Amino acid sequence: DAKTTQPPSMDCAEGRAANLPCNHSTISGNEYVYWYRQIHSQGPQYIIHGLKNNETNEMASLIITEDRKSSTLILPHATLRDTAVYYCIVRALNDYKLSFGAGTTVTVRA
Amino acid sequence: AAGVIQSPRHLIKEKRETATLKCYPIPRHDTVYWYQQGPGQDPQFLISFYEKMQSDKGSIPDRFSAQQFSDYHSELNMSSLELGDSALYFCASSLVGGRETQYFGPGTRLLVL
């Protein structure tokens, strides 16, 4: 059973911010929200993760709602190289595996 | 920074043959994970090892086995290959027995003819 729900696809204009939503309404208190992306059959690339506070790194920002039932990944200035499948994954620290669901195919257009 | 190394990158085998995939984790990482991604599918977890012991197991066929060695590298052995085993196989590694972020290698593309 899927723990996360993401839109199947979205387009974004180059240079604009891309906001990727994710619903995880059954998330438990000890589960983190992870974001990975996969660019055309390459190995999944780690982007960011968080528990309940908003997080930012050099790649993206992660906004988690106060009730933790949803989150948004923000790519501040999308480039053509950001075209990829983006996966939102809920994972507990004592859970070794990452369970990839159906992610969002993001296409950045010039 | 050093990344996860996988070899070979591409492999072609015949049905019923055997294949061995290798994974060299990021230095100091003690946990390795194997994932399989079939054509048009999302990655699926196969198995993981922490400090040379199996730590978790997913939908890995009985024809597949894996182990982690003393230098932390891991090998995935696949026997009696079937056409449906054609897929990308990714290895990932992390620190501290899975509590930390997993970083993925570039993958091995296996084609079974």
Which labels suit this protein?
heterodimer, A: 110 residues, five-stranded mixed β-sheet, B: 113 residues, mainly beta, seven-stranded mixed β-sheet, 11 strands
Q: What is the mean pLDDT of chain A?
A: 94
In percent terms, what proportion of residues of chain A is strand? Answer: over 45%
β-strand number of chain B: 11
Strand order of the largest sheet of chain A: 1-9-8-3-4
- Rg of chain A, Cα atoms, Å: 13 Å
Task: Give unreliable regions of chain B as ranges.
Answer: none
Radius of gyration of chain B: 13 Å
> How far apart, in Å, are the first and last alpha carbons of chain A?
37 Å
- Beta-strand segment tally of chain A: 9
- The helicity of chain B comes to under 10%
Low-confidence stretches of chain A: none
Beta-strand level of the residues of chain B, as a percent range? over 45%
Helix and strand composition category of chain A:
mainly beta
Describe this entry's structure for a reader.
- The complex is a heterodimer of chains A (110) and B (113).
- With 110 residues, chain A is mostly beta strands.
- Helices cover 0% and strands 47% of the residues of chain A.
- In chain A, the strands form 2 sheets. Chain A has a 5-stranded mixed β-sheet, with no helix packed on it. Chain A has a 4-stranded antiparallel β-sheet with strand order 2-7-6-5, with no helix packed on it.
- Chain A is globular, with a radius of gyration of 13 Å.
- The model of chain A has no long low-confidence stretch (mean pLDDT 94).
- With 113 residues, chain B is an all-beta fold.
- In chain B, a hairpin with a 6-residue loop joins strand 4 and strand 5.
- Helix content of chain B is 0%, strand content 50%.
- Chain B is built from no helices and 11 strands.
- The termini of chain B are far apart.
- In chain B, the strands form 2 sheets. In chain B, strands 2, 4, 5, 6, 9, 10 and 11 form a 7-stranded mixed β-sheet that branches. Chain B has a 4-stranded antiparallel β-sheet with strand order 1-3-8-7, with no helix packed on it.
- Classes of the chains: A mainly beta (110), B mainly beta (113).
